[in-house]
Write a structure and sequence with these properties.
alpha/beta; six-stranded mixed beta sheet; 6 strands
């Protein structure tokens, strides 16, 4: 049995793009990075796939700054269906379990699969959320999640690779997994959350997407207090009360 430790980088709607009012895919995958470990935690493979976007033709400026992924780097790459097929080839035919730093990447992978009409019936969604176990290991309060870099530093794992690169983050997640693994760690089955139906389309902030983007950037689960601060900052920004006039 193998472990597939993977991480994703995403793009989202550019703030200046008015053509897409309500995007059908909030987070479009730009990169899939993965490390394959055997049952003895030996590294037996790496996967690094950049994805040519088909939903958003430009890279969100914050995403570009954070990940160093530019539109020029991905325009010559394969589109998601081909990259995902390559990812499946990398996973191989042996039994496997995903290991992720928070279940968010698994959710967005599923959503991208559905968006591109890729058959998912035979795809294994068993996983271990090692971020949850790391948070417990370091005695974080319930509801709080430790960030990836913080966990690396606290475990004194050398961080020679940059963060916010899918392959590098998968590598770091694998290193944490190797240190923290024990018999109490259990495999979960990913459950798909049903989409909420709206009676009338409304123009409002997608707070789930907003919070998820912050969690992706910070590599940690937001606390209720942090969510309230983010919402407050967003509302205050919309009032334009802090706009400087020349």
């Amino acid at each position: 049995m193998n472990y597939i430790i993977f991480d994703l980088e995403f793009n989202q709607k550019h703030p200046d793009n008015k053509d897409i009012a309500t995007p059908k895919l909030t987070f479009e995958i730009l990169q899939i990075g993965a490390i394959k470990l055997d049952k003895n935690f030996n590294t037996i493979g790496e996967f690094n796939g950049l994805v040519k976007p088909t939903v958003y033709s430009t890279i969100h400026p914050y995403v570009e700054k954070l990940t160093d992924i530019t539109i020029d780097k991905v325009n010559s790459c394969n589109k998601f269906p081909q990259v995902f097929n390559d990812f499946l080839d990398f996973i191989g035919d042996e039994n496997y379990t995903f290991v992720v730093w928070g279940s968010g990447d698994l959710r967005e992978l599923y959503r991208n699969i559905v968006f591109h009409n890729i058959p998912k019936e035979n795809f294994n969604f068993k996983y271990i959320d090692i971020q949850s176990y790391a948070s417990t290991y370091f005695k974080y309060k319930k509801g709080n999640r430790i960030g990836l870099k913080t966990a690396i530093d606290m475990l004194e794992i050398k961080s020679l690779k940059t963060f916010h690169n899918a392959l590098n983050d998968a590598f770091y997640t694998a290193e944490i997994f190797k240190v923290l693994y024990n018999d109490k760690i259990k495999v979960k089955a990913y459950k798909v959350s049903p989409e909420r139906k709206r009676l009338k389309p409304k123009s409002k902030v997608d707070t789930s997407a907003l919070f998820y983007q912050f969690e992706k950037i910070l590599k940690k689960k937001l606390t209720p207090e942090e969510k309230e601060l983010i919402k407050l900052a967003y509302i205050m920004g919309k009032t334009h009360q802090f706009i400087k006039k020349n």
